[in-house]
Amino acid sequence: MRSSTLDECSCLITDVQMPGISGIELTKFMTVQRSTVPVIVVTAHAEAGLEDSALANGACYFLRKPIDGDLLAANLSKVITSQVACG
């Protein structure tokens, strides 16, 4: 099911670990649905392959917690102004 407000978003920031669906699964779902909303995935976990999986499934950026606020702001600026190709 697709949210009726998703297309109104400039960017989606999701955590890897969420109840019901992982952030990587959500990113993959959005890619399959051909969503144009850029995705930034964040995590506190350092599991091998997470970053590669997130980026391969359409994420624009993968950030580890604790998140540097300046880096997040710079990444948001890039995706909102379409200065980065995602997926």
Automatic annotation (TrEMBL):
Gene3D superfamilies tied to this protein: 3.40.50.2300
The protein, known as: FixJ family two-component response regulator
Residues bearing the modification 4-aspartylphosphate: 15
Ranges for domain Response regulatory: 1-80
Source organism superkingdom: Bacteria
InterPro entries: Bact_response_regulator (IPR050595), CheY-like_superfamily (IPR011006), Sig_transdc_resp-reg_receiver (IPR001789)
Pfam families the UniProt entry points to: Response_reg
Key words of the record: Phosphoprotein
SUPFAM superfamilies: CheY-like (SSF52172)
